[in-house]
Design a protein that fits this description.
Elements (H helix, E strand, L loop, with lengths): L14 E7 L4 E7 L7 E8 L4 H18 L4 E8 L6 H14 L1 H5 L3 E5 L5 H10 L13 E2 L2 E2 H18 L10 E5 L3 H12 L3 E7 L2 E4 L6 H11 L3 H4 L4 E3 L11 E3 L19 E2 L9 H9 L3 E2 L2 H4 L4 H9 L3 H26 L3 H19 L6 H12 L2
Parallel strand pairs: 3-4, 3-5, 8-9, 8-12, 12-13, 13-14
Antiparallel strand pairs: 1-2, 2-4, 6-7, 9-10, 10-11
Length: 392
């Protein structure tokens, strides 16, 4: 029996759809964790080595994000087995074929798919086109604010806010702390810039092409300039650093580690080598359940990933109420800072790892809502609640 068939619990996954188009060479999967309140949302990951198990973990992570935010919908995730580097007609054919295959899910409103690793907003539009559907309504996630989309900036800034709140529990300040960041694309680049602006010392950055490490700190501005010119090859172009294997990222002697790529990169086989004091993640589910508990026993403060990286929600909400870019960053501080502080405080009081505690609370919330069949709150009430919560 495949592993993904053994992964269910009393929440989900509710449905797993495998799709293919042999003529085009498209192979994909959609995992719907739960359609509580009749709908589910998540991103579309396109990589050659995804697994159904990975997409299932990611769908559950989305359920946890929505439950953490009290947003009344469930989690979903899609995956396409393909090289994200392909462009032009071959890429469009795969995306359209995938959209056509999952049309019943999209057209009936069962799921809403966004971008994820290996895809962007244009790819999502292509998927919808393949399904014969109009493009999604543009939201704050697609607005530009300077060099990068505000959604990318918000996700990155939220991770920095979570790291800053966590430093208090590690008896240190973010200013002056050493930081390692996995990934140097739009979101990873923003995270490096925000860390630099906070006075942290970014000592390591990795891409698919390798990693640069300098214990005395990297010149983030210089690296960002190189990224604009060379993309992922910026790492090779940077000279004032050691060039080492990217897998060493997780085990560097740093204060703050920011995983930014795949699931379960930290597991029971390697968790003993982690030296960071704080882990604030851009990636979803970067640590296995077993390793989460070991990190907690070792006194390493791991912010639940579905809290640290939920910054995407704030620009969506701010756009809904017609707010400003300033409101986005203020809202991120007001949302993610307290969330992080409260879960780490309660974790220490109850002697349970932060992620396990947050998972347990979210599970109780979802099961209660499903059992009582509570009606969704009105849009007006939701807006009122979040205006107060984000103080905007």
């Amino acid at each position: 029996m495949p592993k993904w068939m053994k992964m269910g619990d009393d929440i989900g996954p509710q449905s797993i759809f495998h799709v293919c188009d042999p003529a085009i060479g498209m192979k994909g999967v959609v995992v719907v964790d739960t359609t509580i309140f009749g709908r589910a949302s998540g991103g579309t990951r396109m990589l050659p080595d995804i697994t159904t198990e990975e997409i299932t973990w990611l769908a559950r992570a989305m359920t946890h994000k929505f439950a953490t935010l009290d947003v009344q919908q469930g989690g979903a995730k899609a995956g396409i087995w393909a090289d994200p580097g392909i462009q032009g007609a071959p890429r469009e054919s795969i995306l359209r074929a995938f959209g056509k295959a999952v049309k019943p899910l999209l057209a009936e409103g069962m799921i809403r798919l966004g971008a994820d690793m290996g895809t962007d907003a244009r790819d999502v539009a292509m998927i919808r086109e393949g399904a014969g559907l109009p493009p999604s309504t543009s939201t704050g996630l697609h607005q530009e604010a300077g060099e990068n989309p505000i959604g990318d900036q918000a996700t990155a800034y939220g991770v920095v806010v979570a790291a800053k709140a966590s430093c208090e529990f590690a008896s240190m300040e973010l200013k002056g702390a050493t930081v390692a960041i996995e990934g140097f694309g739009k979101v990873g680049g923003c995270a490096a810039r925000f860390m630099d602006e906070e006075g942290a010392k970014v000592v390591a950055i990795s891409t698919v092409n390798g990693m640069v490490y300098n214990e005395n700190g990297l010149d983030v501005g210089k690296l960002l300039d190189a990224r604009r010119k060379h993309g992922d090859r910026a790492i090779q172009e940077y000279e004032d650093a050691q060039h080492i294997e990217k897998e060493a990222m997780y085990f560097l002697p740093v204060d703050v580690l920011i995983p930014g790529a795949r699931c379960h990169v930290i597991n029971k086989r390697n968790v003993s080598r982690v030296q960071a004091k704080v882990i604030s993640s851009l990636a979803n589910v970067p640590v296995t359940d077993e390793a989460v508990e070991i990190l907690f026993q070792r006194g390493i403060h791991f912010v639940p990933d579905f809290m640290s990286n939920l910054g995407w929600f704030v620009p969506w909400f701010v756009n809904t109420i017609g707010g400003t870019t300033e409101d986005v960053f203020k809202g991120l501080r007001e949302l993610i800072g307290p969330l992080t502080h409260d879960i780490l405080t309660d974790s220490l009081k109850e002697g349970v790892s932060p992620r396990s505690l947050a998972v347990s609370r979210n599970k109780e919330k979802v099961l209660r809502l499903r059992a009582t069949k509570e009606l969704p709150v009105s849009t007006e009430e939701f807006v009122k609640t979040y205006r107060q919560r984000l103080k905007i």
